[in-house]
Design a protein that fits this description.
7-stranded mixed β-sheet; Rossmann fold; alpha/beta; 21% strand; 2 domains
């Protein structure tokens, strides 16, 4: 049976996940529909051209809700897609708030650019935002919720099974069985593989034997620090920055996943009487909404976490934490005196309220920025990881005197050994092809070497727009 896969995103790069599967009879299934991020002006150009006709897609299968995997769904619908969008229930719930927030950003950014262009008497180069809140509403109407670990026929001869993979709430690896006159093909797309030591979510589960595997490779060439001692390390940063230096600990965190893990750890410190009397601000309406969805879907959390809920019904809130929605209150934090912990999105620091906290906080040597997740190349977060003396923000050069701290153990992506553990349920002799996606050239090359050493012999590193017969 001849199938083809064309890689329209996250190919030779980390963002923009979009993989087009074409069946022998011409039907088309799109795996993820993510937004490109961190490429500067190139991101906007990439996000405005799919490389295929949206109306030609018969179904969209979504692995999880992160914007680099779901963020272009409203634009896909606006340009003519009318098929079903398959997702788990938690992914659907998270997409509802994430896509609405993304549309708000698109519309606001366009108004700002139009105002600036008018002031400078310059012409606008684009006709409008990527999509609107109306497009989000139209997209959400197409979602079809599927359970975990249950094969479901989504079209004639095509069965989809969502396998929990521990990345964020609702995330899954996608296993497709395609039956035709010439036989059966089994294709697995990893989505983003989570940690086997995640604080909140169960570890990734084994998936059925596949002929073709599309595997992410974000950390394919390196290992995370040991998980043991992670909470103590976080508490040490709080003690040093907020108590000893009387500074601000600024934590850029993804609204989904990292924010909830940090809040869970701080809540544990409070319950144990170890959290210093320092105000904690969660400055992100999106994070607040996402945390409520984590509460709603608590049945998806680790068994030991569910047991904790019997004693503490709110694992993400405690006296001393303030959840901030109003922009005016957010701005007040930057003139506030005294120590504090501020958690704000976005995790890569390319948008959101975290940017004005950095603008005001970076020049103070008593402060620190704690980076707890992956930052794609080209983002402000990636630049700060290089520990520059100055960063350019809001048209100004901002001195970087605050300490730049990292905690890789909080990453939501499995490292190279965890990616090896994930694929370890497969018989390499039965896998015809492995495609490595969602990674830099270095991370993909490192993972290819590792997988080759463990018996996977046909491994490709696709480039943007490349098509393969499988």
């Amino acid at each position: 049976m001849s199938l083809s896969i064309t890689f329209h995103g996250a190919a030779g790069m980390v963002t923009g996940s979009k993989h087009l599967l074409e069946l022998p009879d011409g039907r088309r299934i799109l795996l993820d529909c993510g937004m490109f991020q961190g490429e500067g002006p190139a991101s906007d150009a990439l996000n405005r051209r799919f490389g295929f006709k949206p109306e030609s897609i018969d179904a969209l299968v979504l692995s999880h809700a992160h914007i680099d995997h779901s963020g272009l769904i409203p634009r896909l619908v606006a340009e003519g897609f009318r098929g079903p969008i398959y997702a788990t229930e938690a992914t659907r719930d998270l997409c509802e708030i994430l896509l609405a927030d993304s549309a708000f950003i698109q519309e606001n950014d366009f108004r700002y650019d139009a105002k600036r262009a008018k002031k400078q008497h310059a012409a606008m180069t684009e006709v409008g935002p990527l999509y609107s809140s109306i497009d989000v509403d139209a997209a959400m109407a197409l979602f079809r919720v599927l359970p975990f670990s249950t094969p479901v026929e989504i079209m004639q001869g095509v069965t989809l099974t969502y396998i929990p993979n521990g990345h964020i709430l609702g995330s899954a690896s996608v296993h497709l069985t395609v039956a035709g006159r010439e036989g059966v093909r089994k294709i697995t797309f990893s989505g983003d593989v989570g940690r086997y030591v995640d604080q909140l979510l169960p570890p990734p589960e084994p998936f059925p034997q596949a002929d073709v595997i599309l595997c992410e490779s974000t950390y394919g060439n390196r290992d995370h620090p040991p998980a043991e001692g992670t909470e103590q390390e976080l508490l040490g940063h709080v003690q040093r920055v907020c108590v000893e230096q009387q500074g601000r600990l600024i934590i850029p965190a993804f609204s989904v996943g990292r924010t909830q893990e940090i809040l869970y750890a701080l809540n544990r410190f409070f319950n144990q009487g170890r959290l210093p009397h320092v105000p904690v601000f969660v400055d992100s309406p999106l994070s607040i909404n996402a945390t409520n969805i984590y509460r709603k879907h608590s049945a998806l959390l680790r068994p030991e976490i569910r047991k904790e809920l019997e004693q503490d019904p709110d694992l993400f809130g405690f006296p001393g934490v303030e959840f901030i929605r109003e922009a005016a209150r957010s701005k007040e934090l930057n003139t506030r005196k005294g120590p504090s912990i501020t958690i704000a999105a976005s995790g890569m620091m390319d948008a959101g309220r975290i940017r004005h906290h950095l603008f005001h906080g970076l020049p103070n040597a008593n402060n620190a920025v704690l980076i707890v997740g992956f930052c794609a190349p080209g983002t402000l977060g990636a630049h700060l990881l290089e520990k520059p003396d100055v960063v350019h923000m809001y048209g100004e050069d901002v001195p970087v005197r605050a300490a730049i701290l990292t905690m890789g153990s909080y990453s939501a992506h499995g490292d190279r050994n965890e990616l090896l553990q994930w694929i370890g349920c497969q018989d390499p002799g039965l896998v015809n092809k492995v495609f490595l996606v969602h990674g830099t050239d270095e991370s993909m090359a490192g993972l290819r070497t590792l997988y080759t050493q463990h018996g996977f012999t046909h491994i490709d590193l696709p480039k943007q727009g490349q098509r393969f017969e499988v």
